[in-house]
């Protein structure tokens, strides 16, 4: 990881501008996310990630002691689910696969659930037969068992901002030694 120096405010700004968002190559239907990155001129790269759908790296910056790209894929990541239907399918039909991914996870991971909120599970506002009590039990059990908090983003137009700012402030806090 980064050798810890005390960076100046200017150096921190330079490093924060060098964030490149990493998107797993198996990630599907995320044009709403990549479009926002492109509009905001936030660089991103598609490549295979071992776990989760999003992470980041900082570009090489030899003058600040970073001779090559520095990956944060073992430090922080985001697993995105586009809907409650997708998540309930993972919890029922693909349970072993998603649980294995959570088990292999290193570092911080957040489960981002788009196009829904918590009350949608309670009131069964999703198009599968998965019982709301079972859905909530699995969601909370996995969150607790694998230390993976979850967040709902009702309007998926905000997903890209959530992804970017999660990584931006993680790096900022890291650089500030917090």
Describe this structure in words.
- It is a single chain.
- This protein is of the alpha/beta class and 178 residues long.
- The protein contains 7 helices and 7 strands, in the order H-E-H-E-E-E-E-H-H-E-H-H-E-H.
- The chain has a 4-stranded mixed beta sheet. The chain has a 3-stranded parallel beta sheet with strand order 5-6-7.
- Helix 2 packs across helix 7 and helix 3 (84-92) packs across helix 4 (95-104).
- The longest helix has 17 residues, at 159-175.
Main sheet overview: 4 strands, mixed
Pick out the low-confidence regions.
none
Strand elements, count: 7
Fraction in helix: 40-55%
Helices and strands, in order, run as HEHEEEEHHEHHEH
Give the overall form.
Answer: elongated
Q: What is the count of DSSP helices, taking H or I runs of 4+ residues?
A: 7
Assembly annotation: single chain
Query: How do the strands line up in the largest sheet?
Result: 2-1-3-4
Mean pLDDT: 95
Distance between the termini: 15 Å
